[in-house]
Amino acid sequence: VYRLEQSSGTFREILQTGIECIGDIGSYDVCEVILLAVKSLGQISEDYILNISHMGIVRGLTGLLQLPEEEEKLVLRCIGNKNVHGVAEICRRNEVPEEMIERVSALIQTYGPIDRVLRKIDRFAVGNTMQRAVDELLVIGRVLSEAGLDERVRFDFSVVNNMGYYNGVIFQGFVSGLATSVLAGGRYDNLMIKMGKKCGAIGFAVNLDLLSELDRTERELDVDIVLLDRPGESLEQLNEAVRYLTEQGLSVSVQKNVPENLTYGRLIEFFDGELRVLEDRTAQAGGPKLPEGGEA
Amino acid sequence: MQVLNIALPKGRLGNQVYDMLEAAGYDAPGFREKSRKLIFANEEKGVRLFWVNPSDVAIYVERGAADIGVVGKDILLESNPNVYELLDLKLGICRMMVDGMKKWRDHTERTLRVATKFPNIARQYYEGKSRDIDIIKLNGSIEIAPILGLSDVIVDIVETGNTLRANGLEPKELIVPISARLIANKAAFQFKTTEVEAVTTALAEQVAKQEQQ
Questions:
Q1: ∠ Cα B188 B70 B171 (to 5°)
Q2: How many CB atoms lie within 10 A of CB A6?
Q3: Which end of chain B has less neighbouring CB within 10 Å, N or C?
Q4: Which chain A residues in 37-96 lie under 8 Å from chain B, judged by CB atoms?
Q5: What is the DSSP code string of A174-191?
Q6: In a 3-state reduction of DSSP, which class is residue B135?
């Protein structure tokens, strides 16, 4: 996907992988997609957390505040940042009763392990939409614990990204060692309606670009072998040598001159149709050995 | 227990926050002494504190180099980082304002020239008023812009207003009150929940104590 980057104002390419499930979405589909999200995170790291929220509960509650649209958006953003004092400030300037402010604050502060949240969640339900949302979370909680995957899943109502887009469950995944969420998704029937489709949709995406940040191991060498391509060298012979060396699991770079800013293990050239080592840094570095037997 | 990395803003605000952290039991030996050292750890309390430029705190926290940090609301409004805003510390209190020369009067038929360090805050404020503006981004000494005729007004934080008055300017309109906020990296919060909660609660108690005084 391509996303507009705030800091530079230009589009940036982001490599993602994920699923979209479009059609008549029922509780089964929702649960299966969430289980897949949990398992996907488990593939990336043992130390992961999936946060699940439900827009039916969050928007159900902010709807009760009877705020102008722009102010409600600001409240949703504050909920997304766990900003209790910010919510209170916006509500007070719009003369929302203190009791309602308390309820939004309580919602922000209700997060954590599934069973702990489920014990408190009933008091948030006012009206049918919210009750349906609570019921859905109860089902999800049960399915996750039956699958033995509930330990690393939390309910957290601060997951409110893209409020125009998502409507039902919405979730974000984190793995230890990455500063931002690596997985994001949820139910987005609203987008389907916007596109003129009469059906539901749910999906998620894993940001693959972020995963490269998890592997911070330092490589000692840029390339195992530099093979010199002298003027008049036989290209067939060079290519055969490259294939032979790469088949041994070595990385090879063919260069016309000895490269200046490249760390390599060995520097080799052809001499009288034989491979000859000009320089060997692997002995002290303990790098891979050049295969015996040279080249025929 | 996991170690919490805490970014504090260099300067008076950072010192005030450190006082609160110390009173809450999160002291780091040597942090107050003037030295070239940048990072101060207290293994026992599980904290590592470091000074950074005040306007960079949000970047350190958003990118996870610090788990939590303290930053002015002005910087949060300007850069809109993706972080949790956990607590209003009620420190570093000031106001984001429109200021102008004493005799200045707004000519609404003209584009208003606004000099500021906070282009996003200025843009949002005037967009809300449907006022056409031309933003002149400056990095310091904003007060001089209207004096030299570079701009009609400035958008800047005002604490006492002394600098304004000394230069023949005065505050004209309040945009938003500003104070210091405790922020947290969203991913770090998931993996160090109890540690972040403990510091937040301890600081909230300090804020309440200072409000009583």
A1: 140
A2: 11
A3: C
A4: 47, 49, 51, 78, 81-83, 85-86
A5: EETT-SS-SEEEEE-HHH
A6: strand
Contacts of A234 (CB under 8 A, 6+ apart): A270
Report whether pLDDT(A287) > 50. Answer: no
The pair of three-digit structure tokens given for residue A246, joined into one six-digit string: 């790469």
Q: How many residues does chain A have?
A: 296
Give the contacts of A66 (CB within 8 A, at least 6 positions apart).
A96
Inter-CA distances, A74 with A58, A69, A71, A143, A165, Å: 13, 9, 5, 34, 16
**What would the mean pLDDT of B33-42 be, rounded to a whole number?**
83
Verify whether the Cβ–Cβ distance A178 to B64 is below 8 Å: yes
Inter-residue contact A215 to A186 (CB < 8 Å): no
What's the residue count for chain B?
A: 213
d(CA B206, CA A251): 60
A71 Cβ contact partners less than 8 Å away, ≥ 6 residues apart: A90, A94
Q: Which of B196, B10, B192 has the alpha carbon at shortest distance from B86?
A: B196
**d(C-alpha B98, C-alpha B119), whole Å:** 12
Helix (H) or strand (E) holding A285: helix A282-285
Please give the pLDDT value at position A208.
93
Pair A180, A162: CB distance under 8 Å: no
Q: In this predicted model, what pLDDT tens digit does every residue of B45-104 receive, in sequence order?
A: 899 999 999 999 999 999 999 999 999 999 999 999 999 999 999 999 999 999 999 999
Grouping H, G, I as helix, E, B as strand and the rest as coil, residue A243 is: helix
pLDDT number for residue A165: 77
Neighbouring-strand partners of residue A4: A11
Cα–Cα distance, A268 to A278 (Å, whole number): 5
For A99-113, how does the pLDDT look when each residue is reduced to its tens digit (9 = 90+)? Answer: 999 999 999 999 999
B84: nearest CB among A49, A81, A180 = A81
Judge if ipTM > 0.95. Answer: no
